[in-house]
Amino acid sequence: MEIEEHTASLSGENPITRLPPDIIEGILLRLPVSSLLRLRRVCKEWWNMISAPRFIKEHAYCAPKQLLLYLPKLSISASLHPKTAKPCHATVIDEKWSPSTWAASHMDPDDHLFASCNGLLCFYKTYTLKISNPATGQCLHLLKPDGILLHDFHYLYSFGFHPITGEYKFVHFLREPQRYKSGQPFHFDIIQVYTLGENKWRAIKAVIPCCMVHLGAVNVDGAMYWLTEDEGTSCGMAVVSFDLREEMFALIQLPALEVKETASCATPKVAYYMTEINDKVCVVTMSYQSHAPRWRRYNAELSGRTDIWALESDKWFLKYSIQSPSLSQYVPQPCFIHREKIILQDRDSNVWYHDLRGKNVQIEHGEEVKLLHLGDYRFYETQSYFYKETLAPLSIYARAAIVRAPPVPLAPSVASN
After folding, report:
1. Residues 113 and 121: beta-carbon distance below 8 Å
2. Rounded distance between C-alpha atoms, residue 223 and residue 218, angstroms
3. What integer pLDDT is reported at residue 105 of this predicted model?
4. pLDDT tens digit sequence for 66-92
5. How many helices (H) and strands (E) does the chain have?
6. Other Cβ atoms closer than 10 A to 340
7. Which residues does the UniProt record annotate as the domain F-box (predicted)?
8. What percent of the chain has pLDDT over 90?
9. What three-state secondary structure class fits 155?
């Protein structure tokens, strides 16, 4: 045995290369993207294995799901108080609930995150939309459907993936200018769809004109979901789904709720939000806070009772009923529950998590676990998305866009609490 090992070392043969390919692949699937980008340069066989679409898909499936906390650029009163001007900021919370701050090289200071899907982040910019793969460092820029649009905002865009077709699609909610001026700013006649890799946006007639996309849009199992007003329901609201394969709309009725929303939404009693938990579409209902602007996408304040309903097999079931004291705690949008824990944030920009034990949960002061402090950013604008690393190359979609790749892949650095 010693003679064989000595002979192998003299011949320059690496013992790991004698392992069966399926064993090598199983080992590689457990490694982070940063390691795989280096290891695929070892030999041609490893390059082909790691670059294969099947391996990339399997690696993404095995990668742990993490939470991404994002804070948009802080520029209010920057001329009067220069210290308050700060670029956008992102923090990743891993599966062990350990926070790390990303290097900012894949984000420009004024980027505004609006979607996270399969490890790809989508940013809203003044003139373009940017797709970024933080794990590989690649990014891709797309022109907006109509260039610079009047009254255009980041929450008027969404991004999703269909697992059967393998296609990524952008959706832009094209607002009607006359409705915007009349005090109904979220009415749509048309949505615009862009399939990644094509070279044009396509207009699709919206069968349901009122869409409350500022209350969150989630992408689950090949479809997008958002809220809309519906006077014919007991609560005055419903969920719209848009199938990314068939590009068809469907209306989903909400479960029977205790408080009816007024049709005009002028004097609401209940606040609604869309979220995602364990790959299921969820609707959040909580007491409406009158000081929170109705038409602004601010984070929800936990006060009193919060119910979270999940959709499974076309039926709603109550997943959580959360009772919380009035402690000025907020939840980031749109994803704030992960691994049976809820993310909370206070007015001092401290971020905490609280265990959700069972269906009925009582938030007790003092039982939270502090994660980190976010500094001087606005506590009510924190966004939270699910994120997992991926090897997916953006260069294959470069026909109608510009792809940029830094020479060194990005890596998180440990954040201080």
Report:
1. yes
2. 8
3. 58
4. 999 988 877 655 444 455 567 788 889
5. 6, 28
6. 13
7. 13-59
8. 31
9. helix
Class of domain 20-56: mainly alpha
**Distance, CA of 316 to CA of 309 (rounded, Å):** 6
Query: Rounded to the nearest 10 degrees, how much is the dihedral formed by the CA atoms of 123, 125, 129, 131?
Result: -30
pLDDT single digits (tens) 145-172: 876 666 788 888 999 999 999 999 999 9
The 3-state secondary structure of 275-338, one letter per residue: EEECCEEEEEEEECCCCCCCCCCCCEEEEEEEEEEEEECCEEEEEEEEEEEEEEEEECEECCEE
Q: What is the pLDDT of residue 400?
A: 53
Q: Which CATH architecture has domain 63-75+86-400?
A: 6 Propeller (2.120)
- Mean pLDDT of the residues in the chain: 79
Q: Residues with Cβ < 8 Å from 32, sequence gap 6 or more?
A: 135, 389
Domains of the chain, residue spans: 20-56, 63-75+86-400
